[in-house]
Write a structure and sequence with these properties.
0% strand, mainly alpha, 4 helices
């Protein structure tokens, strides 16, 4: 009896917190998209784009990370579970973003490239494994 009440209170509190986080993320994505358009306009008005396009790529990938994380929160409201695939997708895009920026600015050492490559491999394996487990669970529910 008490455990059920505590569980409902916990679920309600988590729902409220995740809802607030989701609202903040949606507002952040909207602000980021507007700023991205403004930056694009500035980029078009400049003579050379060589130095600015990495900022544009970084901004786009950052927005994509936020979208993936917000998708994981939306999935939580649907199934009361956080799906690993959306979280790993966001992490993969974030690591790729860092690699692109570091390579463009010539700031990555060989050791860092090896470490990031290993991290990408592990995250990729985790992504494939979580997708396979999700499909297996889905088949068990349907079958």
């Amino acid at each position: 009896m008490i455990n059920e009440k505590l569980r409902k209170l916990f679920d309600t509190a988590i729902g409220i917190v995740f809802g607030l986080i989701l609202i903040c993320m949606v507002i952040g994505i909207a602000i980021g998209a507007v700023r991205l358009l403004a930056d694009l306009w500035v980029l078009l008005s400049q003579e050379g784009v060589t130095g600015k396009y990495i900022d544009l790529i970084a901004d786009v990938l950052t927005l994509y990370v936020l979208v993936e994380l917000s998708r994981s929160l939306i999935e939580y409201f649907d199934s009361q579970k956080l799906r690993m695939t959306f979280i790993v997708d966001g992490a993969l895009v974030f690591i790729i973003r860092e690699i692109l920026i570091g390579l463009f600015k010539h700031q990555l050492t060989p050791e860092m490239i090896y470490a990031l490559s290993a991290l990408l491999f592990v995250l990729g394996a985790l992504r494939v494994g979580s997708a396979l487990l999700y499909l297996k669970d889905k088949q068990l529910e349907d079958g």
